Amino acid sequence: MELSRLSRRAFSALAGTTVLGLALGGSASGGALPASGAPGPVPTGPPPGPPGADGVRHRVALDRHSLLVDGRRLTLWSGELHPFRLPSPSLWRDVLQKMRAYGFNAVCVRLAWAHHSPAPGRYDFTGVRDLDLFLRTAAETGLYVVLHPGPYIGADVDAGGLPGWLTATGARARTTDPAYLRHAEEWLTRVNAIAARHQFTRGTGTVLLYRVDAPPRALTHLHEKVRADGIDVPVLPDDLPLARAEAAGIRDAAEARRVHLAHLAQGVTLHNVRTAFGGTSWGWLPAPSAPTPTYDPTAPIDEARRPTDRLAPLHQLGHLLRHVPGFTRLEEAPEVRASDARIQVRHLTDPDTGTHAYVLRNDSATDVTSTLPMGGTDVRVTVPARDAKLFATGLHLGAGRKLAYATVQPMVSLSVGRLDIAAFVGRAGEMAHLVLDCPEEPWPTRLDEAAAWAYDQGRLHVTVPLGEDRLTRVRVRSAGSDRTLLLLFADDAASLRLWPYETPSGRVLVRGPALLRDVTLDGATIRLTGDTVDEHELEVWAPRGITHVTWNGEAVQASVGRGLSLMTVWPLPGVTEPALPALDGWRRRTENPESRPGYDDSGWTVADRRTSNSTTPVPAGQPVLFADDYGFHYGDVWYRGRLTGASGLESVSLTYRTGARGLLMAWLDGEPLGTHRPGREADAKGTGTWTATAGFRVPQELREALRERPDAGGSRVRSPAHSPVLSVLVRRTQHDQDAYRAARGLASVAFEGASPRVHWRIRGVAAPDPVRGPLNNGGLYGERHGWHLPGYDDGGWEPVSLASSASFPRQDRRQGVTWYRTTFRLDVPPDVDASIGLVLDDDPARDHRVQVFLNGWNMGEYAGGGTGAPQTFVLPNGILRTRAAANTLALAVLADGRSASGPGTVRLKLLGSAAGGVPVTPVASPGRR
């Protein structure tokens, strides 16, 4: 987690204008304008409406409290989503809609330069790299965009997002090196040409902020370049002139509350959840720091696009900041202490609304009950162990009603027609106590059995035991107002069924479904779209005149209930889970002909360079063997060295450099020497660059054969083509995020018993996949010949019968690569969104690697020899054909020869399903021609 602040002077130098109280862009003239359009501080009030490409110019400014959009205060509650980690553009809409529904008002977007650029001067913004489509979708969803194109982004991607080809140019990234700046400017020019068309200031999109990464001495230069490209929204470095905070690695809901409420108490109004959706580090995308395909297992929306238990606090806080005025301009208030010192208290107030906020935190290992002075009363409160709570006093809840105090957190306060609705949330099992200032005795009505109330000395006391996934409603009327107040009390689970929504005709509150995606008011009909998982009732609070309800295009029967809502007569149906086929009909073929002495490597690149652009020193007296110097930046790399003078050779020592989960295999004249890999500890730590020397003894029979060959040092000289061949396969060449120019691949070779001369050739990926991109393929023989692609003719391969329902036979033991292929069909109904995974499981004693390809897309790597826990690969819809179409699954297994080469257990698994979803367009997956 991160909290940062930049000085006014530093930021003024960056922006070229005074920070506090001045606009940073978006005016017609491009000049500086007063933030509020009037002297004095901007008061707290309703935030600006949901953003969109509305064709209207907007002003974006800031002061010491918050962003100002068209003179209104905006607390930014953003979640990070990496489009490159979800290679299915249709699903971008799904996740963005979920983020908006769960309370986010902005999406923070990082762009990986490597994902778009396979070579210098070549850029691709089509297909799964369509930035224009993503920005349009974000605008249609009603989310602001914080755009971060780097050039360096970190994000646990290979080289921090820098393209592999940059490692071979000698350019020193993230410095003022002119060679680097030329490449970086070219990248930003391509991004900015798209981003400029989607700026919120111009009314043509929702890009609100732009972040550039550069060292301080180059920041002004890149800032000027971005401005020259037409970017007129605020351009921000790593820090901002007001408090900004990021949170990552949150383990559970309690920690989410502690972290985010602490940020709120520190006056943060620019919040970012990193990451809101973790996604998949598919192909050769992941950096050594996070080598597994699942990028962020702590994300509140998981890799399968499902909500997790960390989401409820974010949902509640996001809607609080959106729908409850009084939490944007918080200032320090007089100190307040709980009677038990284990509860830490931060007291803040909004001078405009009179709202007081109390952030309570308990870092102890036990629940703590104490008293806290709030609203003129000592209130009994309980804070669970290692948890936090937010309480409020003085909160206006509609016409003439004010909150004295409550032991539950406010989530929503909005007006719908003649109804004022206030929702409060807490943990299941707690007793909620809410007190309203009511000068006149009100007329409460209990709509659910659990609620109780009492009126005493001008205050209405309401108590509600919070049940598991249960909403409790209390209606309050009084003679002094023609408006009714509806109080809603929910635990975490029930809060995730409350969906506030803003339409051009007024606000709406929906309760019941698993997700609300969209709301349209059409005459007397409210049209709702969303998802259901379990059967559940639907309740709608809508503006006056709405009498009919549709759900996903179908009319549902509804009537007005006691809560002045439209309540469906029959519950919405749940989802029927689709059946998944067993994976059978496999075919198998071994490869690695590169290990055979007679293999024709004449078309391979000669590895004879003597200098390198790597930061790794070249061993004295040896040629450069680093893969990047020969243009092979991703995946597996093969080396073949022809030995002259090898008579008497006893052992070979191979020094190689990889990231986590690296691997080396070696053969001499076709005979396996052995396999070497990093230790499990290095893999677990995500070691950035791992260097080791693999020492192999030459087998006795092979030593005798070398001594008997006259070309191995005898009097006769034979052609190098008939010399002994040392073949080496190295996995893998992923680059460290920071030391991105550290060498990958084979580094040097040493011999004992002889000193042969070596003539080296190297081979990696054949060419970047024009559709799937440069990060999809490596240098295995099967990849170079399309074995992973749909349409490849595997009819001549050996059929494989499964030994059990999903296990492969284990009789084959060989060092090298074996491929398995099969096809399968799914028949998921068109109105069902099913998230499906591929589960690989095996004996933890078997240390091998399995590369998974679905319809030619590299879904990532399974690494055996770990904890023994199954690994699940999420198969994104779009790449996965779910509507009665064939899918091709290919597995490339690298085995060390000591254990069987089969991949173990392979099966499909339903990770989640919902009735609803978004239309999914198949992702282009060209096959073998």
Main features:
929 residues; mainly beta; eight-stranded mixed sheet; six-stranded antiparallel sheet; 12 helices; 54 strands; elongated; disordered N terminus
Q: What do these coordinates show?
A:
InterPro entries: Betagal_dom2 (IPR018954), Betagal_dom2_sf (IPR037110), BetaGal_dom3 (IPR025972), BetaGal_dom3_sf (IPR036833), BetaGal_jelly_roll_dom (IPR025300), Galactose-bd-like_sf (IPR008979), GH (IPR017853), Gly_Hdrlase_35_cat (IPR031330). It catalyses: Hydrolysis of terminal non-reducing beta-D-galactose residues in beta-D-galactosides. GO terms for molecular function: beta-galactosidase activity. By secondary structure, the protein is mainly beta. 12% of the residues lie in helices and 35% in strands. It contains twelve helices and 54 strands. The chain has an eight-stranded mixed beta sheet with strand order 1-10-11-5-6-7-8-9. β15 and β16 form a beta hairpin. The protein is elongated.
Describe the protein's topology:
Blueprint: E1 2-4, H1 8-15, E2 60-62, E3 67-69, E4 72-74, E5 76-81, H2 89-101, E6 106-110, H3 113-116, H4 131-141, E7 144-148, H5 178-195, E8 207-211, H6 216-228, E9 235-236, E10 244-247, H7 253-265, E11 270-277, H8 311-323, E12 331-332, E13 343-349, E14 356-362, E15 368-374, E16 377-383, E17 387-393, E18 395-396, E19 402-406, E20 409-416, E21 419-425, E22 431-437, E23 443-446, E24 452-456, E25 459-465, E26 471-478, E27 481-490, H9 492-495, E28 498-503, E29 506-511, E30 515-522, E31 525-531, E32 539-541, E33 548-551, E34 554-556, E35 558-560, E36 566-568, E37 586-590, E38 605-606, E39 637-644, E40 651-658, E41 663-668, E42 671-676, H10 680-685, E43 690-697, H11 700-708, E44 725-731, E45 745-752, E46 757-763, H12 781-784, E47 798-800, E48 815-827, E49 832-841, E50 849-854, E51 857-863, E52 871-875, E53 883-896, E54 905-915
